[in-house]
Write a structure and sequence with these properties.
Layout: H1 9-21, E1 32-36, E2 50-55, E3 73-79, E4 92-93, E5 104-105, E6 118-129, E7 132-136, E8 145-151, H2 166-172
Antiparallel strand pairs: 1-2, 1-8, 2-7, 3-6, 3-8, 4-5, 6-7
Length: 176
Amino acid sequence: MIKIYINSWLDIVIKMSKRRCEKLNIILKPVGYIRSERKEMLDDNWGGIVSTIELDPQQFNEDAILGLHTFSHIEVIFYFHKVKANKIETGSRHPRNNINWPKIGIFSQRGKNRPNQLGLSCCQIIDIEGLSIKVNGLDAIDGTPVLDIKPYMSEFAPKGNIFQPEWSRELMKKYF
């Protein structure tokens, strides 16, 4: 039995702050897996790649995606499962190790060697059949674990002017 004695509101705030500062271990269970003709992690030419997200029938039935067909796009959060631990970047680097581009922090680029190995793609829905969602524009390889799927809604699009450095436009020229 754990006994907690709180003498004032300040004690409550201090105890809650300490709790938030503790390290958390987060365990995520994939909701499904990606099936794709793309088997290797290559940086470019994702345009025209059609993939299928196969939801896990042990966890979900068709009710989980009821109404998804009324959206044109989805956002897919996935896990870069093929990235080796010794390749994870926590500091800065040249994007794609290209010394002609500036050295920038990992959170200023979209590389796969991220600290938590999470990827995010917005892709077009082509078809939905059962627990299979066929999409275009998903830049993840065959067998990639899918952690979540959300419908894309224009109200979540960025507000105001969007700007980005020129090197990033050059990097993306052959991506899709």
